[in-house]
Design goal:
CATH class of the largest domain: Alpha Beta
Distance between the termini: 29 Å
Shape: globular
Radius of gyration: 21 Å
Largest sheet: 9 strands, mixed
Number of helices: 9
Strand content: 25-35%
Number of domains: 2
Helix content: 25-40%
Structural class: alpha+beta
Length: 340
């Protein structure tokens, strides 16, 4: 996924040019992976751009930061406002949004307390399916990874921390080098956990099954959405421990996530899943998901935050509120003229 840069990035309550969003090479986050982040999608809808489950994502970001004792100075509402302003400033119709909270330049030791806590948010255009052009319709070929998810009480899996994704990189690289699109991780007990960057669901006897959080699973926003949509569609759905062999016996298997959306799995370890393509229940869930995110189906749960491209509170007034200073007075980074 190549990043196509946009005009502005939000940093600590102010907007700056993309190329000016830089960190020192010895910042704490570079050596120790001390950052938490989110991946959020803004979709083109019939009513203009709309962000999917914005408040839920930002709350998870704050939860992740809280676990690592790096609470940001910005409230949930301020982070949500920053996201909508960012999309408006960059004139995006649809995009991917990446908010981050990290430990910046300070001490060079492991102890992070003397390093400043910084907040960033970027967005960029993203039109290509995460796991391939045909993945959403035809499905993908995956494998069970030789790399397990982290053991309980090591790295907190309920926090979306950058350090956790070194494990994900090992899973993804191994899969791709062996000719697969993605890998499925087991937990330390050998039970199914998740993909390198996706939650996983199985369909057996007409019921949808996903591993519980205690199997080292990230509490995915899309995962929660799938469970909710199953209830709406009268599809039985449960969280239960999944032994590895259930992957081979399932009628359908699919990944879900902000990037993967709802992606069918057609084979695992070269064993065909079901009929080797997108199953009936997977299709029903896809249709509901893409209908909601496109605005062609009713958003009964209030998952979409529509972005007003014109009007609303002026962006420089929001900056003034967030920084506590006039918008044209520097607050560590340029603010005023740089955001117009």
């Amino acid at each position: 996924m190549t990043v196509k840069k946009t005009d502005k990035i939000w940093h600590n309550g102010a907007f700056k040019s993309w190329d000016d969003a830089q960190l020192h090479v010895v910042s704490h986050v570079v050596s120790y992976g001390s950052s938490v982040f989110e991946g959020i999608r803004c979709y083109h809808t019939t009513e203009g751009p709309a962000i999917f489950r914005l408040r839920d994502h930002m709350q998870r970001l704050r939860n992740s930061a809280h676990v690592y004792r790096m609470d940001p100075e910005f409230s949930l509402d301020e982070l949500c406002d920053a996201a909508t302003d960012l999309i408006r400033l960059n004139r995006m119709d649809s995009c991917y949004i990446r908010p981050m909270i990290l430990r910046g330049y300070g001490d060079v030791g492991v102890n992070p307390f003397n390093c400043p806590i910084e907040s960033y948010m970027a967005c960029w255009e993203w039109n290509n399916p995460y796991l391939g052009e045909e993945a959403v319709h035809a499905g993908v070929d995956v494998c069970v990874s030789s790399w397990a998810r982290s053991a309980p009480n090591t790295l907190p899996q309920m926090a979306k921390c950058a350090a956790n994704y070194m494990n994900s990189q090992l899973i993804r690289m191994e899969a791709m080098l062996n000719g697969y699109v993605e890998g499925i991780a087991l937990d330390v007990s050998g039970h199914v956990s998740e993909g390198s960057g996706e939650n996983i669901f199985l369909v057996m006897d007409g019921a949808v099954i996903t591993p519980p959080l205690e199997n080292c699973v990230l509490p995915g926003i899309t995962r929660h959405s799938v469970l909710t949509m199953c209830r709406d569609l009268d599809i039985p759905a449960v969280e239960q421990v999944v032994p590895r062999e259930m992957l081979y016996l399932a009628e359908e298997v699919f990944f879900c996530g902000t990037a993967a959306e709802i992606t069918p799995i057609r084979s695992i370890d070269k064993i065909r899943v079901g009929k080797g393509g997108r199953g009936t229940i997977t299709r029903r869930i896809q249709d509901e998901f893409f209908g909601i995110t496109s605005g062609t189906k009713s958003d009964t749960h209030g998952w979409l935050t529509h972005v007003r491209v014109d009007g609303g509170v002026p962006i420089d007034e929001r900056v003034k509120v967030m920084s506590g200073k006039p918008a044209n007075v520097p607050a560590g980074v340029p603010v005023g003229a740089d955001i117009r």
